[in-house]
Amino acid sequence: MSDTDERAGKADLGEARRRQKAANSRVLGPVSVRLTVASALAAAAAICSVVPFIVIAELCRELLSASIDWDRVWSLVIVALGILGFRGLVQSGALLWSHMIDAEHQYTLRQLLAAKLTRVPLGWFTERSSGGVKKLLQSDVDALHYLVAHARLEFVAAITLPFATFVYLVFVDWRLSLILLVPILAYAFAISRVMGKGHAEKLAAFDSLQSTVSETTIEFVDGIQVVRAFGQPRKGHHRYQEAVDDHAKFFTAWVGPITRLEGAAGLLLNPVLVLLIVLVASLTFITSGSMGAADLIPFLLLGLGIGGTVLSVGYGMNALRQASAAAVRLWELTEADELVDPAQGPTPASGLVRFEDVSFGYHADRPVLRGITAELHPGTITALVGPSGSGKTTLARLLPRFDDVTAGRITIGGHDIRSLPSAVLYRSVGFVLQDVQLIAGSIRDNLLLARPDADDAALVEATRAAQIHERILDLPRGYESEIGKDARLSGGEAQRLSIARALLADAPILVLDEATAFADPESEAAIQDALAVLVADRTVLVIAHRLHTLEGVDNVLVLEDGRIVEEGAPADLRARGGLFSRLWDANERALREVDELETTADPGTKEVHV
């Protein structure tokens, strides 16, 4: 490894430690003081668990003495029983309190995260799958249970118990005590090899692969009906299978050697091996007369248990690492940028939209959009066109404030959208995207998101215009039908429901991400009819993925590498012979190829001959 790589590795390790420290402070800080008290109780319980064995060892030594003091014997028995009972009360009290702390902490943390999600930009959600968000709010919060309710208490007990035992054994015979440390130190050395360089990076890679498996599982299950309907189940299965295979290969390559080494290391603390070491050493001391036979009893009663205590720490390390990684992810969520939502602000008097020298980047050193200047007038449709990755979707989603611009500004009716309260902004700007989002609830609940005070007449008017009213009436409970239970909508039907929701909101400005891109022909016709009603007399910004859908568009903004390189009416841009013209020609060729394939299909078998 070069000096540069070594310095980079140390810097990454230092950053990881800083993040972990910040995460522990932010996520666990509110319960730290109470956990410290619970840990003190756990330490007291650990000492109390050692004392009865010490008393029993002393009892055995007394019984083996030449002159037995029976009063002392019975006193020792009573003391052992009393301390054992006291230890049970203290330990159960510490565990009960830590679990009460954990329950309160999880409740408070979930409230905090839920409130945080109401303040992050909408773009935060578009960068993450539903599985990833679920993992944060459910799995990662659940993972903190071990960190709060168990980890600190178990760690304190695991340190206190062997330390107290070792101190007592040193007073019995310091030489045998030091020999007892040999297998423990050998185990610690072996484990340090397991946790050597690169372990943190591999653990992060493993967590990433686990997240991928979780996300692809959700995608596969959600999309299985579609891929089977089109007779391509293997295509839908491919990404899921690939994620599982990658996870299995990595896990086998990483964990295999570690498991073998951990198994060998665990043998060092095997009670039988420790017993043999203690017996061999003690026989040497006893035969030489430097140690009494009775002095071996404390080592047999207490010494063999030290190894088990050390092993218990190792067994809890995996849960601790997972909980610590979860704490970092939750800390990252709490540190996510928030959109400033003014409590009061102006109300735009018109639907005139201006992009004024707008620049944007998800990272400061990697801009996605640069110097965008454009006007969108009421009653007109403006289309965003460009190659994949040119910034079309990013630009369109800046208007409803999925993210804030990093330079320049966007105005509605002359007012910077950052000065508008969110309630005012979303009364002014509506959007219909390809990825339809419906909440768990009834059809009515989903529609009323747009206008909670809407009556039945308004709902019916919106759904009729969106060509979805008749389909809703066919459902078991009509508008009261629950999404996912007694209402299973196709992609085109869900899209028309989202259009009805946008109609109900009656926003003067609309952002459309070519809503018919993945619809079947029947749904596409219905969606186009619904869109014709939706866009009337509004300021409309359309993300155009398929150029043949640009009929009726007033203006086209052509993007390339985050800049507007052409602007004008579709016919004028075609005549110029620039980027738009080339994209149009490519689109036309693609349509001709599709037509040719369809005409060569055998009507009887519906198979395409290529």
| Helix content range | 55-70%
Q: Strand content of the residues, in percent?
A: 5-15%
Q: What is the topology, as strand order, of the major beta sheet?
A: 6-7-8-3-9-10
Estimate nothing, just give the exact number of structural domains: 2
Give an overview of the whole structure.
- The protein has 610 residues and is an alpha/beta fold.
- It has 2 domains: 22-334, ABC transporter transmembrane region fold (Up-down Bundle); 353-599, P-loop containing nucleotide triphosphate hydrolases (Rossmann fold, 3-Layer(aba) Sandwich).
- Helix content is 64%, strand content 9%.
- The protein has a 6-stranded mixed sheet, with helices on both faces.
- A hairpin with a 2-residue loop joins strand 4 and strand 5 (415-416).
- Helix 1 packs across helix 10, helix 2 runs antiparallel to helix 3 (70-117) and helix 9 (271-287) packs antiparallel against helix 10.
- It is elongated and about 115 Å long.
- Mean pLDDT is 77; it is low at 225-233 and 602-610.
